[in-house]
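Retro notes, structure queue

What went well: the backlog is down to a handful. What didn't: a couple of records were mislabeled last round, so from now on we paste the full input next to the output in the thread. Example, using Glycolate oxidase from Oryzihumus leptocrescens:
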Amino acid sequence: MAALPSSLSGRVVTDPDVKATYAVDESLGAAAPADYEVVRARDLADVVEVMRFAQQTGTPVVPQGARSGLAGGGVAMQGAVVLNVEALDTVHDVDPLEGVAVAGPGVINADLKQAAAQAGLFYPPDPASSAFCTIGGNVATNAGGLCCVKYGVTADYIRGLQVVLPGGEVIRTGRRTAKGVAGLDLTGLFVGSEGTLGVVTEVTAKLVPAPDPALTVLATFDDLERASAAIIALRQERHRPSLLELMDAATITAVQAVADYGFPQGCAAALIVQSDRPGHTAEDVQRYAAVLESAGAAEVAVADDAQEADALLAGRRALNPALEAKGHRFIEDVCVPIGRLTELIRAGQDIAAKREVEITMSGHGGDGNLHPCFFFDPAVEGSRERAEEAFGDLVSVALELGGTITGEHGVGSLKSRWLAQELGPAELARQRAVKALFDPAGIMNPGRVYWSS
Ligand SMILES: Cc1cc2nc3c(=O)[nH]c(=O)nc-3n(C[C@H](O)[C@H](O)[C@H](O)COP(=O)(O)OP(=O)(O)OC[C@H]3O[C@@H](n4cnc5c(N)ncnc54)[C@H](O)[C@@H]3O)c2cc1C
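Corresponding output:
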C-alpha cells in the first residue's frame, strides 16, 4: 500500500504485536491480513488527514472503535488503513435543558451513561458490551442491548453527527434541538452504516429523564414455548418492562458454571424481567409476576430490592463470558416479529438436532432478537462446517418468518451474503447508489455490508 503521510507518523502503530490487536474484532475467524496500517487518530485533524490520503491513493479505510463488533466490520483488510478513533474520547457537553450530550466517537458507552447520570439524565442504549464499546461504534452499528424493549435502539437517541467523508470533507448532519424537519435525515443514514460512508467524529445524543433503580422478576419454565408465550403476553402490557431477557437451560448451565448467580438448575428456560418506571417499580414487578404465572411459569421470584435485582442482572451480564468459556461458536443475531418468536425457537432447536450441533438459545426475547450460539469443536472434522450451516439455516428461517438477518450486531462481513435476500434488488440498488454518493471511489470499508464480491 502507499506510504502514509509523514505528518501521521506519531499516530501510526508500529509495534507488530500491538498492531495485530487492532487488526481484529470479536467476530469469529477475524485474522490480520499481510499488509495493512493502523492509525490511532488523536483529533479531528488526524481523521481528515487519513481520509484525504485514502481518497488520493485509493487506499481502503476501516473505521474502528473498541473492536467489540461481532460481525467483522472493524477487521483490517489487505492494503487498508485501520482508522481507530478510540482516543477521541471526550464528553464535550451535557446540556440538561436541551436534553443532549455531545461526545467524541471514542467515548465508552458506560462513560456516556455516567456523564448523563451526573446531570440526572439517562442515555438508554445499553449493549451488553457497554463497559468497553464506543459510542461511535454504537452509532455505526445502530447498537441495541438489554433495555431496547422499552427504550429502543441507538438510532432513537442520535440527533446529530459530525462525519469526515472520503477526501477529508467534514460535514454536520442533524441538529441539537428537540424537533427539526429541515431536509432529509442524513443522521439516520449514517446510523447503522457500519463505516461504509464516512467516519463519525462527534455524536449529539438525546438524553431522557433518569428512571428509578430497576426491580426484577425471575421466572422459570418447563419448556421454551411457554417462555416465549410469556414474552408475548408481557409485550402487550400497558407499562412495558424495561428489560425482558430469555435464557434457555444450556445458557443457564453455562452461566452457573462460572459462578452462582442464583439461577435454578433443571428448568428449560428463564425470563428476566425488569421495571424501572419512576414510582411504580414494585407495582409493575407484581403485575409482571402475575402475567408470568398465567403464561405457565413453573416458578416466579420477585427480587424486590435493588441489590437482589442487580444480582440477577449480573447473571445475565455474565452470559457472554460464560458462553465464550464454553468453546468456539457462531453467534446468531436474528430478529423476528414478536408473534413469530416461538416458531424461531422451535426452528433453532430443529436445526440443531438436524445438523447435530450444540446450541444455546438466549437474548433479547422482548425484542424478538435472539443470539442463539452454535458450538463447534475445531479438532473434530466437519464440526465447524455443520455449525456454520446451522447458522445459515437460522438466517433463512428468520427471513421466512418476516424477520431480519441482523437485529443489532450489523451485517459486517459475516452476513453480507444474505443482504440481497433481505433487501431485494430495488432497495439494494438504491442503497448502492447512496453509498456511491458519499464514497464514489468505494474506499470506505469495501466488501463489507453491501458488497460481498
Ligand atoms: C460481549 C459482547 C456483548 C455484546 N453485546 C451487544 C449487545 O447487547 N447489543 C449490540 O448491539 N451489540 C453488542 N455487541 C457488539 C458490539 O459491542 C457492538 O456492535 C458495538 O456497537 C461495537 O462498538 P465498537 O466501538 O467496539 O466498534 P467496532 O467493533 O470497532 O466497529 C464496529 C463497526 O462500526 C464501525 N465503526 C466504529 N467506529 C466508527 C466510527 N467512529 N465511524 C464510522 N464507523 C465506525 C466499524 O467500521 C465497524 O463496521 C457485543 C459484543 C460483545 C463482545
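Agreed that this is the format going forward. Reviewer comment attached to the example: Residues 25-26, 62-70, 73-74, 85, 105, 127-129, 133-134, 136-138, 140-141, 143-145, 194-195, 199-200, 320, 408-409, 412, 445 surround flavin-adenine dinucleotide (CB under 6 Å).
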